Model the fold of this input.
Amino acid sequence: MRIHFKRSYDEDIRLFEDWRRMAKYAVLLAVMIALPALVSAYFLGEVTLVLIYCIAGMGLMILAGHTGQISLGHAAFMAIGAFSNLWFMEQGMSFLLALPLSAVFTGLVGAIIALPILRLSGIYLAIATLALSIIIEDIAIIAEPFTGGVGGVFAPPVDVLGTSVDRYGSPNLFYWMCLSVVVIVLLGYANLLRSATGRSFLAVRDSEVSARALGVNVTRTKALAFGLSCAVTGIAGALYAHFVQVVNYESFLVLLSINLVLLVVIGGLGSIHGAFFGAVVVGLMPQFIAIARDFLQGSVGIDISAYPGLDTTVFAVIIIAMVIYEPLGIYGFYMKIKTQWQLFPLARRDMFRRSKSYLKTERMR
Amino acid sequence: MSLLSVENLAIHFGGVKAVDGISFDVQAGEVFTIVGPNGAGKSTIFNLISRFYQPTHGKIVFDGQDITRTPAHNIAELGIARTFQNIELFDHSTVLQNLLVGGHTKRRASWIEDVLHLPRSRANEREARHAVEEIIDFLDLAAYRDKMIAGLPYGVRKVVEIARALASDPRLILLDEPASGLSVEETADMAFWIEDMKKDLGLTVLMVEHDMSLVSAVSDRVLAVVEGKPLALGTSAEVQSDPRVIEAYLGTAA
Done:
């Protein structure tokens, strides 16, 4: 195990602990940038979807992982982000302007919705946000001038600084665009977590009472977290709209909301890494299942495509297993392995014992 | 000069009069202790002062300012910090991060500056770190600085909670049973720390405590409370020998 001796406060404030860690992320970023040269166009499309899931996952992670407020309705904010982005573009705005604007709009809507809804906690909050997700399907049909009604809206061509960025026409550019959005959101998220604002989120998650006693305005903090979370999710929604090229009321069903919750839970609540691990699992799982199906049919001779809903079942089993055996998600599992490795053979079982749940804010209200 | 004065404070939960007409003055620079049997309303008084509960009637004045209607999240900024009976730390953070939240009221950068990590946000962080390091030094927590709360022993968590309260740079600190669950040795340490807070930091301490060894070691004045009503006020020895207090604790002779 390496021990890092710190010599100034700035070493705690900066994003990377030491140059080794910085180098690791630099290599990762380099690989991601070079990816179009390494994989097929089809796989690149899948990775692009995973990146969009990463953004949505970071959005929900701010709220569920770091502020401790569950939301089963985040697909609704993806929808608001998508429809508002397309609407802004229809009004003649360029994509580069419409994207941040739709994020701000979604964030504001989120913060306004948050004020009444975040008076609830735990299971009641989950139900209220679930309702949001269901309502948005109807709103998407009713608000026809903005959403195109049942038919939906076709995404107009995206033009970034004079270059056309299209998922099919220029998949590489579209991929790089998503990647840069991921990096920007990630930086903002990391900055947030190393600041007083981020710590106030964690404080509200772990103990609302003492947060209040220390001068944190809990209502405002929750609304801010919800707003930021929605803004980021809105960005993901907007990119998703350009990814699938046509969105209607069926693009953002409750199932997508559930998928986002699964994403943060599988990835590991309370860590940015978790959003990425979760996005890889949730984004690529349908592919894995399809590959497994082909394999079973081709080599073993078992045809499982006769059973509809198998994907969902496999998904469900994985989630249940995850919650029971690895409640800290993939990131928690990764940390365990890492600690075992670093301390070998001194790691003890009880070093990884579970502590209190993250939704611990029911007391003293 | 009295730093905190509580006048005829009362809170009723339905028919239960948890606190019923309590008045006291805490002088600047003293250690004022509230004692009383379980359910006497001691912690409720704390929750009233830190504004978690709205009093049914009565008045709370801190440093000449009426705080009876001040929102709870503005209390820390005025200079009142507190600890909790059943430790309320942020379990999934390190000791350092917990203490940094203590300095929350000192921040000046807005959330937008934080997200963009602008110079003011960084300056905030440096100052907060500096202030926190002094407290870590003061309470001898350096060994635990980067440890997660969830893995710390109980006695250390108690100290961390006090450290977090001190990080908000208060003038008045409310300690809710600082010695509960501590060993004899740790209680003795706690007595020294309370003395240090009073002498070195010039803090005023309002404390609820059951451990009479700690109460007599550090308290300037003691208020005995029974069933939400004040019973006796005086030095620790006076209150402990008061026949009404003895009766309240032990019951009357048959």
Remarks:
- Strands of chain B lie at 2-13, 16-27, 31-35, 57-62, 65-66, 80-82, 172-176, 204-208, 221-226, 229-234.
- Chain B has ten helices and ten strands.
- Chain B has two domains: 1-80+212-254, 86-169.
- Chain B has a mean pLDDT of 91.
